[in-house]
Design the sequence.
């Protein structure tokens, strides 16, 4: 049985989508081929990398990709993890099921290194919970 294709979208493809990408790869790479992209990509946020390292998932090799790269590819699921990406997400070919899970931007939190890293960890943990719930309904 071929793996289902999942595209996870966020605005910058720097934090939320990258963390969800790493989590889903770890949780269900036997069932899903996972990609992530941004409507206006930048680079992977170092705090996202650190937050994922805390749970032993390495996303240092991830790149921040443009949504344009995937427009001509079919997906089974397109998941937006920020409100702005949900508003600007185009229609994908095929029968992609669109899901929206709005999470706050951890990069918008101001404070010490510890406060910032904690905001990324909170979003990471929320994404993990949401993915676990979703996976339990998608055998």
Sequence:
């Amino acid at each position: 049985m071929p793996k289902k294709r999942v595209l996870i979208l966020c605005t910058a493809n720097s934090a939320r989508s990258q963390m969800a990408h790493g989590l889903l790869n770890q949780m269900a790479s036997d069932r899903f081929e996972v990609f992530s992209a941004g409507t206006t990509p930048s680079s992977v946020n170092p705090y996202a990398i650190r937050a994922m390292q805390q749970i032993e998932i390495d996303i240092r090799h991830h790149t921040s990709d443009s949504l344009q790269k995937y427009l001509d590819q079919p997906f089974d699921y397109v998941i937006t993890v920020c409100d702005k990406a949900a508003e600007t997400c185009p229609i994908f070919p095929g029968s992609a099921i669109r899901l929206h899970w709005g999470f706050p931007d951890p990069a918008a939190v101001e404070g010490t290194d510890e406060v910032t890293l904690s905001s990324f960890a909170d979003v990471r943990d929320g994404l993990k919970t949401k993915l676990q719930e979703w996976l339990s309904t998608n055998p």
In short: DSSP finds four helices and four strands in the chain.
